[in-house]
Amino acid sequence: MKSKIKQWIDLAKKKFGLEDYKLADYRFSRRVNIFNETEYTFSMEWFPSDETEREDEDSNPPGTAAIEINVHTEKIESIIFVMGKTYAKNGVEFKTRKLEEMITWIEEETGLVYGEQFQLHRQEDGEYRFKECYKGVAVSPSGFIDARVDEEGRLISFSVHGQFPAKEMVEEDTFSLTLDSIEALKKDQVKLIEFPSFEQKKIFPVYALEEIFVTNDGAETIPFEVFVDSRGYLKIDEMISWEEPISLQPFEREVFDWSEDITAEQAFSSEPAPDSFPITKDEQEKCLRIVKEVLAQEYPEQSGKWNLKTLHREKRFIHAIIRANEQTNRVFQRKLMVIIDAEKEKAINLIDNNMMLDVFHEFEVAETVAITKEEAFAKLEDHFELTPIYVYDFERKKYRLCGKLDCHYGVHAGSGKVTFLDDL
To answer: Residue 207 — very low, low, confident or very high, per pLDDT cuts 50/70/90?
Structure first.
C-alpha cells in the first residue's frame, strides 16, 4: 500500500509540474455510485513552496493543487488549482488552446472515446464542458467532463463525473419513437404550474409540459424525478397518522459530523460502504415509528397530512423523505426530511422547507386562470421536443433507449401568451 501511495504522489508531482510545491496532506474518501458500488478516492493537497499552512481549516492558499485519483482505475478524477492560479512548471499545457488538443488529452487521460462516450456541450474563453453520451446519444443520469485553462494555456482545473457506460451495459436500439405516437401522453404531461418571479414578487400560473422519459416502444414511462433520487431510494409511500398526541420529550436537533475517516486498508480492500447496504425490514419499521414520533411532536395537529415517500442511506444515516398529502400547483412543494441514526434508533435532525416557502406568501398571484388546458396544449404542441436518450433502468440494471419528452415554453394561464420558461 505504501508503495502504491508513493507511486500516486510521484505521478501527480511529475504530471502536473509540482516541483515548486510541497505535499501538505493526503487522505482517502469513498462514495456509492448509481450502481450501488463503493468507489474509493485518494486525495492530495499540494501547497506552493512558500506557503506553510492554511489561513483556516476550510480554505487553502491560492495556487494550491487539489488532486483526486480513483483508487480502482488509478486515473485522475480531478485537479483544481485554487483561485485559478498555478505555479506549476512543465505541467499540463495546451499551447494552441484548440478543442482538438483538449479532446486528445482527455482521451489519453480517461481512456474514453470522443463521440462515443463523451461529446462537446459548451466551449468559451478557455473553458470546456463535455457531456456523457453513448455513441453520440445522450445518457441519463448524465455525467460530464470539465476543463479550464488560463490565458497561457496552462491547465487550472479538470474533473470527471459520471459512469460512461461500457457496451455491455447498454441495450442498443434504433430510435423509432415519434411525437405522433404519444399523443395522449403529451396532453397528460401538460400541467398548470405556479411559477414565482422573485424580481416582480408575483406568482404566475403557467401551463407547462412536465418532462418525462418514454421507452422506445412507447410502452413505459420513467418520471424525470427518478434521477434526482436515483440510487438506493426505497419507496415506502405510507401515510403517517396517530390517534392521539404522543407524549414524548420535545424533539432536539443534534450536531453531527458527515465526515468519515477512511483507512488505506478499507480503500485497497474495496470494503463496501455502509450506504451500499439495503435497508432491512426491521430498519423500515423502526424508521416508520421514529418518523411518526417526530411528526407527532413537531406537528401534533397534522395527523394524516403527511406521507413517508422514501428512505435512503447517506453518510451512515437513514434519510426519510416526507411530503404533504395535499400539494399545490407551486413549483416548490412542501417537504420534510428526518435524519435517523438507525443504530441508536433515534432522529437526530429534521429539515423543513417551509421557511423557504414562506417567502412566497408575500407574493401576489399575477393573473387568474382564463384559458383551458386544451387551449394551452394547442399553443404548445409545435414546441414539443422528443430526443433520443439512453436511460439507466434500475430494475434491469441496463441502459435503455428512450425518448425525452420536453418543452422549453409555457403558456400564461391568464393572457394565453406563449413564453420561454427560462424568462419566467
So the answer is: very high
Q: Check: CB of residue 407 under 8 Å from CB of residue 387.
A: no
Least confident stretch, 158-162, 246-250, 420-424: 246-250
Q: For 235-281, how does the pLDDT look when each residue is reduced to its tens digit (9 = 90+)?
A: 899 999 988 766 666 788 888 788 889 999 999 999 999 999 999 99
Instruction: Identify the pLDDT of residue 225.
Output: 67
Say what the pTM is: 0.88
- Write down the pLDDT at residue 259: 85
